[in-house]
Amino acid sequence: MNLKGKKVILGITGGIAAYKIPLLVRMLKKAGAEVQVLLTPAAHEFVTPLTLATLSGNPALTNFSEGGEGVWNNHVELGMWADAMLIAPATANTIADLAHGNSSNLLLTVFLSARCPVIIAPAMDLDMYRHDSVRDNLETLRKRGTLIIPAESGELASGLSGEGRMAEPETLFAFLETTLLHGSRLTGKKILVTAGPTFEPIDAVRFIGNHSSGKMGFALANVLAEQGADVTLVYGPGSARDLDHRVKRIDVMTAAEMYTACVDCYPKMDAAILSAAVADFKPKNVAANKIKKEQGGISNIELEETQDILAALGKMKSPAQVLVGFALETDNEIANAKSKLERKNLDFIVMNSLRDTGAGFGTATNRISIFTKDGKTHNFDLKPKREVASDIAEILYSYLKK
Ligand code: CTP
Question: How far, in Å, is the centroid of ligand 1 from the Cα of 306?
Fold first, then answer.
């Protein structure tokens, strides 16, 4: 994509993942962007200013006065110059500084002066990343509008394995690209997203549920919000994290609660994407108290169908509204997905197969195919859920324009 004329500040802090940033500088330069690199003093331990200056074509700055006698690197000017600022890797220390408004180095002062969208990509060891103080600081920043590219899971420099690894340069590039090119293309559009599982009570303590985490729906809600949409997320009891602060979140437990929330708000929406794994069946009778073994326990549970939310919205849908469903299939995938598309009056359907490794419940990646009502098929590779969400957003955008 063409980033010609787009101005990017890349802030690098003192984490081992800094060694990946020169690659990102290359990608941005290749796409035509102007890049200004800022380093904290600690970042010099991990990557050299010379490398970054050579690749970016601009002096890589750390201090207020460098680059010649009498030169003053004006943080206010830098903050106003940029179209986007990305701090990657963002260490726990810098995240704390950002959250508390500290201004003890050039990078921190530019953050405070920036008028553009600011994105941070945390990178640290797993125990640091899940520490309450780090989580609180990230939450503070998120609430104030800083965009966060969540750390990924994998092998860490410490030798441990878990969440804390900085997202790959390709992901950082894609995020910047969305912010720079599509930051407002969905402004004014109201979009409903459903995500997560539903839990259908059996008695006071037990329920029927499923393994959905809600990660795909969170990624969708985030990508749409980043493009300026006014997103409402109706969310069942999943385990997904890191929702964009701009998304309005309605928490529900059961299919019936999700149905009510969706049917209530759909008339005001321009589009809805239903990615939730809604229970298709629920216990017919729910015991008010816990069913005890001595009372005979549970040998049978009589089930009845839940309401089909997607089908209900398909019936309510006006010609201007866009409706998107998901299909998670194990057999006759394509035929089933296409028949769902028609039966439920959808504009397009996103199919993922439980047969694909790396796709489906709880995974960080997904492989999808999209079938549209105009008879088109789009097949995509296995990708991180965020990139899958961008692909879906792209097709949604083409329908909202029609
Ligand atoms: N869905 C819904 N309400 C339900 C069940 C499903 O809105 N009670 C939505 C899901 O969010 C998804 C789509 O319907 O977008 C497909 O769900 P799936 O369970 O695969 O399909 P069903 O329509 O239930 O069809 P079948 O059971 O025949 O596969």
Answer: 10
